[in-house]
């Protein structure tokens, strides 16, 4: 803890960087297995710089000797997945970069995502505390569309329906709120006009069916309002739980956020988007008297007022037209 300890750590850091560059640049063979075994033991070291250095070594070896390193993945995976629970964000982010480097290979991409979902399934706390960071960072490091397509394929086969519903709820919230997934949201908004977007929507929709509110919000995002309207009727036939109402409450808050600004503008055209209006009124009918009910009702009431004003203007125009016709006679 004193000056000597600080100097020792500083010297160790300099030495480590020199060794890393030396091994990275060497053309000589070296014992990867033995080195990897030693490095992975330091992933649980109490010092953050040591854990970071271990991940830097693994990343370097993956870049230098990918084929050899891939042979050791069965032993390496558990350590990398355990590191996702590290209390330090910098360690988790670097760990995700290592996993992303592994995912460059399509075969290993599927293995990483399957292992990640299984880890979330076994460790719900990890999903709750780190799920958002993990999904957002992987979407940046790889590709949001590929990540969500892979998650959808995995969850479609999930037999633990409670976990599948929770996972879909988590992924849906990330999709709707994260700046990292802006492009993916843009793709989904073209679901009715683009073949690629339509296929993406269908694939995600099938997995999202594990959670009714998430499916409904996906339809709103993709502007598939007729399907959203049908889903409201379906939701009315299912048991309304506290968890369900909490999800609807959150959705109402999101409808008032910038993500759905285009949807709110489309409410100004009820004749063009009749199923949007029907969907939101249906959602309103599902809600008990609450702050979410009042918020959504206020939004819809403003549209009703617009409709009355439009009708009055149309009537005035007709009367004026009738008056002009009479006077011309």
Sum up the structure in keywords.
329 residues; mainly alpha
Q: What coarse outline follows from CA principal-axis ratios?
A: elongated
Main sheet specs: none
Structural class call reads mainly alpha
Q: Helix proportion of residues, in percent?
A: over 70%
> How many β-strand runs?
0
Q: What is the element layout, followed by pairings?
A:
Layout: H1 3-25, H2 32-41, H3 48-64, H4 66-70, H5 73-83, H6 89-102, H7 106-122, H8 124-141, H9 144-156, H10 161-177, H11 182-188, H12 195-208, H13 212-222, H14 225-236, H15 242-255, H16 261-266, H17 274-286, H18 291-328
Helix pairs in contact: 1-3, 2-3, 3-6, 6-8, 7-8, 7-9, 8-9, 8-10, 9-12, 10-13, 13-14, 14-17, 15-18, 17-18
Structure description:
This protein is mainly α and 329 residues long. The chain has helices at 3-25, 32-41, 48-64, 66-70, 73-83, 89-102, 106-122, 124-141, 144-156, 161-177, 182-188, 195-208, 212-222, 225-236, 242-255, 261-266, 274-286, 291-328. Helices cover 79% and strands 0% of the residues. The radius of gyration is 27 Å and the shape is elongated. Mean pLDDT is 88; it is low at 308-319 and 324-329.
């Amino acid at each position: 803890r004193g000056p000597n300890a600080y100097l020792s750590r500083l010297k160790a850091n300099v030495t480590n960087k020199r060794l890393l560059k030396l091994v990275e640049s060497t053309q000589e063979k070296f014992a990867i297995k033995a080195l990897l075994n030693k490095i992975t033991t330091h992933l649980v070291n109490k010092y953050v710089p040591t854990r970071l250095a271990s991940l830097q070594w693994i990343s370097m070896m993956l870049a230098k000797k990918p084929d050899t390193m891939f042979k050791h993945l069965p032993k390496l995976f558990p350590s990398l997945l355990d590191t996702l629970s590290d209390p330090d964000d910098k360690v988790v982010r670097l760990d995700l970069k290592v996993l992303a480097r592994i995912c460059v290979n399509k075969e290993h991409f599927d293995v990483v995502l399957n292992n990640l979902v299984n880890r979330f399934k076994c460790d719900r706390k990890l999903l709750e505390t780190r799920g958002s960071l993990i999904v957002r960072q992987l979407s940046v490091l790889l590709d949001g569309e590929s990540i969500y397509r892979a998650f959808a394929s995995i969850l479609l086969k999930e037999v633990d329906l409670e976990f599948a519903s929770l996972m879909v709820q988590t992924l849906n919230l990330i999709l709707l709120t994260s700046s990292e997934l802006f492009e993916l949201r843009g793709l989904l908004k073209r679901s009715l006009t683009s073949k690629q977007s339509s296929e993406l929507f269908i694939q995600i929709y099938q997995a999202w069916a594990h959670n009714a509110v998430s499916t409904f919000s996906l339809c709103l995002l993709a502007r598939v309002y007729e399907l959203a309207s049908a889903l409201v009727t379906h939701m009315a036939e299912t048991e309304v739980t506290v968890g369900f109402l909490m999800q609807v409450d959150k959705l109402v808050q999101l409808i008032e956020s910038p993500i759905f600004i285009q949807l709110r503008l489309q409410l100004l055209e009820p004749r063009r988007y009749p199923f949007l209006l029907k969907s939101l009124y249906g959602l309103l009918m599902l809600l008990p008297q609450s702050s979410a009910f009042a918020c959504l009702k206020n939004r819809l009431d403003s549209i009703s007022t617009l409709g009355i004003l439009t009708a009055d203007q149309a009537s005035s125009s007709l009367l004026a037209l009738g008056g002009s016709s009479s006077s011309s006679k």
